[in-house]
Amino acid sequence: MTTLVRLVYVSRPRTVGRQGDSQGRSRKAPRRDSRDDFLAMCDEILVESRRRNADAALTGVLVAGPGLFAQVLEGGRAAVSDTFARICRDTRHEAIEILDMRAVDERRFSQWTMAFSDIADAPETLVARYRHGPSLDLRAMTPTALVAFLEAVAQAQAQDNALLGAPCPTAGFLDDVVFVEAAE
C-alpha cells in the first residue's frame, strides 16, 4: 500500500531576470513586475501542474501572494517527492522552504489536482481570522494553520467561481478552478 503524504512549502516567485521552464531550461524572462504578468506566470504553472498532478494522482493547492507562493501537495510519497524535486529545479521558484512533510490518513484537497487562489482575492474576514499583526504572514504560520488557511481559501475561491457561473469542481483529476471575470 502506498503511503499518503502531505508536503507543505513556501517559495518566492522569481520575478525578473533568468527564468526557465519546469525542466530548468533557462531563457531570458520578461519582466514579471505587473500583476497581469504575475497571474499569467501562475496560469502557466497551473496548466502544467494540473496535467502532471492528474497523471501522478496528486492533489493540492497553490496560493499566490505578494512575493510568495504557498503550496500543499498530497499523494504517494514517491510522486510527491518527484514533483517537489521538479519544483526545486523550476526557475520560476526561489527561496523554497519546506514547512512540513508527513504521512496522513486522508487528503484535505481531494477535489483538486491543483486549486489556486490569488491571496489578493481572499475574503477579508478569512484573512483577518489568520492574520497576527498588521499583515498576513504565511511564512510565520504553523504548518497546521497554513494548511487550514489554504483549504479555506480554496473553498472560498470555489464558491466564488460557482457564484460567477464557473463549473463546479468535480471529484477526480480534471482542471477544476476556472477564472471568470465578472461584468462590471
Automatic annotation (TrEMBL):
InterPro entries on file: Acylphosphatase-like_dom_sf, BLUF_domain
Gene3D superfamilies reported in the protein's UniProt record: 3.30.70.100
Any one GO molecular function term: blue light photoreceptor activity
Pfam families: BLUF (PF04940)
Boundaries of every BLUF domain copy: 4-115
SUPFAM superfamilies xref list: Acylphosphatase/BLUF domain-like (SSF54975)
Protein's UniProt name: BLUF domain-containing protein
Species this protein is from: Salinarimonas ramus
